[in-house]
Amino acid sequence: MSQAARRHSAFQDGFAALWHDPALLLGEITWRWCFGCSAWALAIVSAALFLDSLKISHGDEFLLGTLQPLLIGSAVRHIFHGSAARFVAEQVALVLGLTLLWSLAATAGRAATLRRLVAMFSADEEPETLRWEFGPIFVLQLLRATWSLIALSVMILLLALGSIMAADGRPVRAAFCLSFGVGLAAASGVALNWFLGVAPLFCIRSGAGAMDALAQCVDFAARQSGRLCGLGLGFGALRLVWAGTMFFVVLAPINWARHIASGWVMVAMAALALVYFAGADLLYLARLGAYASLAEDDSRPAEEDSLTPTLSPVATNPPPEVPPFPEPATG
Q: With a cut of 50, which residues of the chain have pLDDT below it?
């Protein structure tokens, strides 16, 4: 996208990029949904293997058949007795595998998307060939996934700890743990997740390594904090409106249950949920386009200053001295 065809704001540029190249959204949906389907398949297979490894005795079958809550609870405890360690080990392996799979998928998808966006918003009419930078982007995506897991684990741990403190009659510590602790964990998780998510843009733009790209992202956020805050508020408001609207739309097929089979109701709700996810991917991709446009605007003043020719002072010769006009002789 040439400089003359650019919009007046980064917010408009983000949506203009999708209008200019609709294949960007198709590629984003493809890699995200492929990962989602793979993750669900792995989770279902893992649960099926675990349940298949459990042994149910004839006594457990009899207790389950009584349909009495106390007897069913006793049978369930007996069935799962001694399998907690195996279940935890399987879930840890599943989480690690999904983390690695997410990092690989996000690296390929994000590199392709950012290369197109950076070339689209480049100020040069014929931008130079951009490198893929798979290695640095993979490191950033792996750090992002790992940090998200750590922040989520800390939040769950603090919630459980706060609940235990509240049950033990220590309300002050429970309130501190549930409010300050959970809030700090959530804020730090969201902040670092944002930096790690935007840093791949600078891997593509400048060919920087993972840590250098992260440092450039921090400097970029410091210079453009006002405009970035405006973009965050704008896209955040759109995301909330979209989520709130689609929440009621997804639940609307429940009213059809009296007229059609429940299976078709679930299919309709699943299809509408996919529409919501597609819209969410569109908004996220538009935000990436806005960041790419803003990063180009941020780098342009320095480039223009470096290209401005310096004018050397022109040497001027002083005007020649004019001899005084001779006075006429008086006779």
A: 1-7, 302-316, 325, 331
Q: Distance (Å, rounded) from C-alpha 316 to C-alpha 320? A: 12
C-beta separation of 279 from 246 below 8 A: yes
CA count, 13 A, side-chain hemisphere, 21: 21
Quick check: 253 and 265 in contact, CB under 8 A?
Answer: yes
Question: What count of residues does the chain have?
Answer: 331
Could you give the CA distance from residue 167 to residue 268 in angstroms, rounded to a whole number?
Answer: 43
Which residue's structure tokens are 């009495």?
A: 68
pLDDT of residue 265: 87
Do 101 and 187 form a contact (C-beta atoms < 8 A)? Answer: no
Whole-number Å distance between alpha carbons of 289 and 158: 36
Q: What is the CB neighbour count within 10 angstroms for residue 172?
A: 8
Token pair of 107, please?
Answer: 């690296």
pLDDT in tens, 257-279: 788 888 888 989 999 999 999 99
How far, in Å, CA of 283 to CA of 239, rounded? 7
For the chain, the structural domain boundaries read 131-223
Residue whose token pair is 């670092």: 192
- Give pLDDT, residue 214: 92
